[in-house]
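Q: Could you write out the predicted structure for this multi-component system? I'm mainly interested in how the pieces pack against one another.
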Amino acid sequence: METSMKAAYLPGNSTVDFKDVTIPQPGPGEVLIRMKASTICGSDIRAIYREHLGKGPEAYQNKIAGHEPCGQIVKCGSNTKRFKEGDRVVIYHISGCGVCNDCRRGYMISCTSPSRAAYGWQRDGGMAPYIVAEEKDCVLLPDELTYVDGAQIACGFGTVYEGLERIGVSGNDAVLVVGLGPVGLAALMLAKAMGANHLVGVDTVKERCDIAKNLGLANQTFVSGSETLQEVLNTTYQNQGFEKTVDCSGNTHGRQLCIRATRKWGKMVMIGEGGTVEFNPSPDIIHDQISIHGSWVTNIWRMEELVERLVRWGIHPEDLVTHRFSLNEADKAYELMNEGKCGKVAIVFDEELKG
Amino acid sequence: METSMKAAYLPGNSTVDFKDVTIPQPGPGEVLIRMKASTICGSDIRAIYREHLGKGPEAYQNKIAGHEPCGQIVKCGSNTKRFKEGDRVVIYHISGCGVCNDCRRGYMISCTSPSRAAYGWQRDGGMAPYIVAEEKDCVLLPDELTYVDGAQIACGFGTVYEGLERIGVSGNDAVLVVGLGPVGLAALMLAKAMGANHLVGVDTVKERCDIAKNLGLANQTFVSGSETLQEVLNTTYQNQGFEKTVDCSGNTHGRQLCIRATRKWGKMVMIGEGGTVEFNPSPDIIHDQISIHGSWVTNIWRMEELVERLVRWGIHPEDLVTHRFSLNEADKAYELMNEGKCGKVAIVFDEELKG
Amino acid sequence: METSMKAAYLPGNSTVDFKDVTIPQPGPGEVLIRMKASTICGSDIRAIYREHLGKGPEAYQNKIAGHEPCGQIVKCGSNTKRFKEGDRVVIYHISGCGVCNDCRRGYMISCTSPSRAAYGWQRDGGMAPYIVAEEKDCVLLPDELTYVDGAQIACGFGTVYEGLERIGVSGNDAVLVVGLGPVGLAALMLAKAMGANHLVGVDTVKERCDIAKNLGLANQTFVSGSETLQEVLNTTYQNQGFEKTVDCSGNTHGRQLCIRATRKWGKMVMIGEGGTVEFNPSPDIIHDQISIHGSWVTNIWRMEELVERLVRWGIHPEDLVTHRFSLNEADKAYELMNEGKCGKVAIVFDEELKG
Amino acid sequence: METSMKAAYLPGNSTVDFKDVTIPQPGPGEVLIRMKASTICGSDIRAIYREHLGKGPEAYQNKIAGHEPCGQIVKCGSNTKRFKEGDRVVIYHISGCGVCNDCRRGYMISCTSPSRAAYGWQRDGGMAPYIVAEEKDCVLLPDELTYVDGAQIACGFGTVYEGLERIGVSGNDAVLVVGLGPVGLAALMLAKAMGANHLVGVDTVKERCDIAKNLGLANQTFVSGSETLQEVLNTTYQNQGFEKTVDCSGNTHGRQLCIRATRKWGKMVMIGEGGTVEFNPSPDIIHDQISIHGSWVTNIWRMEELVERLVRWGIHPEDLVTHRFSLNEADKAYELMNEGKCGKVAIVFDEELKG
């Protein structure tokens, strides 16, 4: 086995740095994983790639980049309890202390310990041939799913699944998704699998609407404009609105659209990050008995549940990947993602390269 | 307009009596409905047809039979507020006082007033060309649904929808239904529409299993035997069981099967009436963190909701009807239902006769 | 029995008009009620008293004023099913059609029929010695409660109870109430009865805070200022915030305070009407997994439930009444309420005059 | 520091064995705890003390007894993340693998790994001056609570809190508890703290009823007999029954009593282990729209939540302890518990000896 590897770092000036580093070895409770797929998240671009803007949990500490890693265990450290060599695994993207109340609920994302470290931010991530992860952060990837599926679960799909579970989605619901980046597309894909009987997507960019349509993820899509609220309402039963709405835009207009398109007694969930929202409580939520739910990432046991569902549903997150690159081409991958004219972008290794 | 009509009564000796009666006129808050479809319920056979066994709310007071009526309003009494001549309507099968707490929740089934009267039991029902109903008991039937669809909603489908809503059914769920009479078949049909991703049915009678299979309502069916529990578990993800189970058998063995086939953290609902149930709480529900829900009929606003869903789903309860008769042949219809070699049996009028 | 009575109208110029009118007679399904207590709501002042500002459901049609009436039935019209002469009753303040979906859920407040009429707005209200109400709008008042208790239930307490039920309040919760008018005081009183283990109130007006303190409704109160958020947080377990927060202020700052004082995983409900709200979803609700619930008035069966609870809790809404007037002094009562230097203001009759 | 200690074992013939053993040392992720209180659970008597009856998770492997331990950390192994020397801690009584789905939800009780080990059953427990525990199994005990409080939380109170949370208890509820051993008494104590407005307890043994009464935990208690159902109903509002009922008896009659005393729309939870239950679904749960919930132990994050609540409520589980013994007298303690003429029995150390 080789002892060093080439790994990608993000210096914060819209380029990618490669460094030769020693392949790490797993300690007690840790596993060494051969990387197979490592996708790029919008937050990588926003907070690291262009500039190192993030603070606190988003502060990049010049570690190997990539917080959506998926691969195969090649070596176990001492004292591992469940996973073994050969297991295919998704990595929950935050390594928490494991013993605070948040970690005990499985929400390592909100770990309150100073020892909390995000892969690709405060500890080495997935943009290298190997990664050491804690066993407790691993989720088993069944054979029915590909590594590129798995990389998407690590962050985006997990976040979406949690948000949809928060408001509940079934065949009783028409669902509106506003903001059709990878997260919004995932919301359409999962809402459909959960049984939604009518799906509508909205984005400011026509190309994104087209992706949703072309992938068969929405019954109808709309490029947002001054008439969008009425247009989306017109697609619903007696124009009464959507039982469930999902904001993935992170924008006050997108959020207003969701709130106002929610049917009486319906529920709206906010997944998209950043910005503000302003609305008029009396007509918007009080008189229509509506609730608005904040939902952040997910917990690790629900991520396991999602993996099970994906197999049962026979659907593949990798369908949202429009571009694959080898690690050598990581600079091109980040550049493309930065420009935004793409769906999901993946760095892939080994068998996933042939995809 | 004619002034008298022929109406069917059940004397309680396994025959049908026809009498000529005056066509009634609607009083204040009432409507006169031209009957179009009137289906037969298992409870008609059990409590009235063979013998007048029922007590209290099930005591038959020699009224025109039939508590699953559906038709078209031909005349409104004074002081009606919503419905008008020409409206197609389903009748909620119990007329409650409207002002007790149960009625105010919409559950006229459990009206606590002495004035409570079930259509076809304590007031005239649907086995006649005309019926007078209270406006407050009517549910609008949209053009997308047939009168035979509507008659089924009046009792069976409403009951099933409530039960499924009680436990929640979505694409996250594998669903087991035990007991495949008309109610069990309805449970499969609605669970599928609500998004269930795997459906299994069990009955003691092979013919009923075949109906479910032939109508495409279940992925698999099993004639119950000593191995049934293991067989149904084997159809689920890693043999872990069903997230949701529905008893429509009213039998202790059927109920045990449901409880024991429910997955850890799952929910079971009892819809089937009568009999007892015995189980072992520690292994059966405590260690698996399972809940068991009793659910009785439905309320009138949820029945309206169901009507809306059926239209949105594009499904038809009338698919469960295997035999149609004119009112003249009501004796044959009850006889057939009594023998049980059939799906749902309907008495139909006018355009529904041509079905 | 006398045949005419003096009734109060609000001409919209900050005065009260008295007119002699015929005492009405109950029709079918109606009851005649001898008025005992009729309280003044903030909405009366806002939308009618100063000017006739309201539109749609808030349009005042020059009827006898007063939408919080409580009295005793003195005569029943034909066809009443439950209530009888001598019954003490609260009147749900909106008379709906009774047959639309909203009415069928008991939410006459959002009745969708053109026949919808609010007592004191589009049909005669409680500011007269007698009122005719529909039986279906009456809620039985047990002997343990006074008529002044009952008048408060008719609007404010019902609305508060619904809002608290929406978010659930128990001994597990610290509860913050922002806005300490009669509705906010009711929120404190009911949250305490539902088991809240720590109660904090905030208002911009010191006098209102003092009322809450003096009535023993809050553990602590704060006059809102620049440090209020931190001050209220400091009263909670490890400064982590309130499990449940209730906005009764209808103001963007009050609502922000509620949202930001809500603990991780907590719930906030908006009851206060009007205005806007602006906040930052990521830190305010997404990262803390918080939900915001709109809640409007209540349904009639929950109002019955509230009446039952008040008896079981042994608490009295009338404790919030600071001033009582006879109907002759109605002008003084409205004037006082308009100035706002008071708690709840009641017009009372007969035995309640002696209070 | 001494190097050996005297520890208690249960040979399975209704005696206690003492052995001198080496004081263990904490490994990575482990802590050494100085024992302060170690209470005896009914399951110790049932499955170990008299005979070694238990199988699987209940198989006693001749380890130091005691699965309700509470003490103070005196030494941390390497790689601990949260707890430190001097911390007072409760130990969750099952040490799970930490990485299966059940452990990830915090329910180590249902850990599916072969490495699962219960303290006092498959690994050394609390009946010795020192214990080594995994840091991940520790719950911080605040200064406001005593070690004897903490020992009770470890098993009984945690189990009860989970059960009550499953059905929800607030000031809206009258609560019936059947079976007044330590678990049932805990149910009364916690239901009251959660806000229950009326509490009734039932047991077959008068002495247990008296304890509940004398501790002020119940408004009324009843020694069960042929009239008990009617007697407990008579204590409720209009004899309508209890919104919430809790079975701690593990007995079919106790469970029937709970189910039949549950009010329409109410919820019943089964906590008591063993035995069977038989009932009549139609009258017992279907027509009354009742649900029955199985609840098993609790998860570790909810146990932390319970600790917080106890502090906020200012209540003390140790109030249920009727007898304290030093470790030397462990044989007397088990003997007393075996006879059953007592409340909770505790082995105490150091400052708790003075209690």
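A: Regarding packing and overall arrangement: Residues 147-167 of chain C form the longest helix (21 residues).
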